[in-house]
Amino acid sequence: AERTTLVAYKEIAARAAVLLTLLSAPALIKHAATPTAGFATIGWVFGGFFVVSGLIAFFATAKSPMTASVTHHGRLTLQLGPLVENRPFAMVTLAFLFVNLGDAVFSGSLVYYVTDVMHQDASLIMKLYPVGSITGILCTPLWTMAANRFGKATLCRISLAGNALICALPFFFPPGAGWLMYPFMCLYGLFNTGARLLPGAMVPDTVELDQQRTGERREGVIFGIFVFVQQTGFAAGGFVLSLLLALAGVGTTAHGTGRVTGIVICFSAAAAALYGLAFLASLGYRLGTDKPPDLASSSL
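Structure (tokenized):
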């Protein structure tokens, strides 16, 4: 329960940062002498935030108590051991890989769906993203309470399945009905928050399981792999989206029904499929009960 609560704070901070970025970036460009100067200002301001936040995190935790780590695998070739030896960790990591792929495809294709399919101005994006972010912030405590009551794994599967189903809805939106995007983004923000919050809260449980089985504390390796997969998934998602958009004819002189259909498939079907794969991967997560290993049943 404490782990879920801690990760919930991180999720709220992440979505608040997205909201702050969306609000501040256009203002910085607007007040600059030229667009080029505006983007340069954005680089300096956000870069400064990166440096300051990193230093705050370092100095705030520099004197925290440390636990002695006993690790016998010193070679780099063995550092992927947890993915092979720890099935619950492998499954939650695979699920989160597909979540980040889905997020990248969804976010990158949203502007094409809004402009080419819904025939709305691209500025609508500046309203839709805050709707999703604010919904996510408001729903984070609800996901936390539900997960602590019914179990993280169960709620994680519900959020992933819900995320996949919600992304399928745009298939049925009539062209020009831009107002439907507002309730859609509310639903997306609701389920996507759970899809990002709960895997991160489940990983620490797999760390204790790993220690119980191996006698080693490998949380550095485990979280390193988890974050690496997260960032790789988001980056690879951009590449996957570029391929899908190229097949859809976006960026060329192609027009008409074929182009619109391709964009809908990218935005809706591709994202839904990736979140669906995340759900399927989460089914392989088995940790006895949904409690820390020292409290779980002997089935571990």
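The CA atoms of residues 97 and 232 lie 8 Å apart. The chain is about 75% helix and 0% strand.
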